[in-house]
Amino acid sequence: MITVIKQGLHDTVQDLGRYGYQRFGVVAGGAMDPFSHRVTNMLVGNEEAVATLELTLVGPHLLFEEDALITIGGGDLTPMVADEPVPMWKPVLIRKGSELRFGAARAGCRAYLAVAGGFDIPEVLGSRSTYVKAGLGGLDGRALRKEDILRFNSSSRLAEVMKGKLVSGLPLRAADWQITPKLLPNLSGHYEILVMRGMQYELFDEESRHHFWNESFTVSSQSDRMGYRINGPTLRLRESIEMVSEAVTYGSIQVPADGNPIILAADRQTTGGYPKVGQISSVDFAKLAQAKAGDQLSFKEVTIEESQRLFIKQEMDLRVLRAAIRNRLR
Amino acid sequence: MYIHKTQSGCVGNMEYTFSPLGDQAVMIAVEAAISNLSQRKVNAIVARLDEVAPSWMVEYIPAYTTVTVIYELGEFIGKHPPFEQVCLRIQEILIGVQDVADTEQRIVSIPVLYGGSYGPDLDFVAEYNGLTPCEVIEIHTSGDYTVHMIGFAPGFPFIGGMSEKISAPRKETPRLKIPARSVGIAGMQTGVYPIETPGGWQLMGRTPLELFLPNEHPPSLLAPGDKIRFYEITIEEYKDLRGDDE
């Protein structure tokens, strides 16, 4: 069990999303950075869809009321126990009575905290993801607050073996291995993001299309789990059109009449009526999720074939990683 | 079509195009513009997808003239590019689908408390159209409405069929908070906000009915194809139906 001593900026319970209800207007939601969510789960012996905590920019202070095997991944929000930094991307045993304190973001924007067994929270419409606007899922449909209590489900056999290996008198004990850095995104503050042409790409004028691929855009402070507003050259249609609302998805880059693009993210609405200039490759959701206000984005064109090839390659890499972790945890 | 890469299919008398929406979804477009025919085609495709429910389909999102199928990309690892495989599978599934007229339509009656603090823009809509508030309510309650799609917010219906006699432009500055269950008008559309959201619609009144039902299946009171009638209720009836002090 964890008690929240101090809340962060926006700490929510997330899993891989609420699918099957978008036809009723229910947003899919889920972890903004599904890669980090999945890998942190793997590292504590969980199934990948188990709920984690998504922590944004400034993380919380959490008191562990029992021993827990955890992994922190994603953005670096400077996690500490006592005066010791907590290493990321590896299993760590936190002892009962220790306080895990996150600070400000050193790199990236969103950290994921996975606990062996996952959080004991009821599913709403098939998911534990928090959707704050409709008060759905997570802990009472809202972000964490001071004095909230999060209980754990029982952890897997693998996690128990790992815990046994890490036991010592210290408040914190990390595994002596970690996953290869080459699998992890480079959190530089300037992200090159792979983008496919959007459904209405051809309707933009030539100059706008040129700018889109060749200029960089700055992430606005008006960015959240629903979408990122980005500032750069304005994008114009060749002629205005009256669009009929149609489905949108994570990574759809919409351009409203003012010409400033909005990149739709995890908590996007299900349908939209603005022309879409581009569509971010699934493999690069992780980069987008780690971009924060002021960071630079540039877009590199890929075909759907290439985008799907890269996705499948990443799935293969994750399969290999999963097997390697199982061997390590054993 | 304006799509950079499409595949098309034609089955019986139904033609459609496929376009990728990102690398994990495909949009099936049946018509370029909204019509009764486009609605029937969308409904027919949805009915067939429900019937077949292929294992690789995560879900689908119907809209006015499109149905978007979200698929499990991991299930298409093979020789052909996954997008092409998905299009072929969907084409097979849609063989023989006819845009037949809907056989059964639900009629949902929605009680509305018009005006006052529940519908602060009723007077504006009346004035804008040179009508009295009573005439606006009369026209709004005598309309024959159809739900075209659910989207924008959980349970939010896009409703067609409103009389142009009571149309009104969106507010120039949207409200930051529109109370849940508000009934509004924007242009030629009327609709009901299921949850509290920002929005620019002119607010006519409020219904005591919940449109978003997170603990029920399906979680939405309304579905595409439903017929809707609005009827006026008094504040006493509203309070009776709510059963709380709102």
TrEMBL record, chain A:
SUPFAM superfamilies: Cyclophilin-like. Residues 23-317 form the Carboxyltransferase domain. SMART domains: AHS2 (SM00797). It holds the Pfam family CT_A_B. Gene3D superfamilies: Cyclophilin-like. The keyword Glycoprotein does not apply. It comes from the Bacteria. This is Biotin-dependent carboxyltransferase family protein. It comes from Sporosarcina highlanderae.
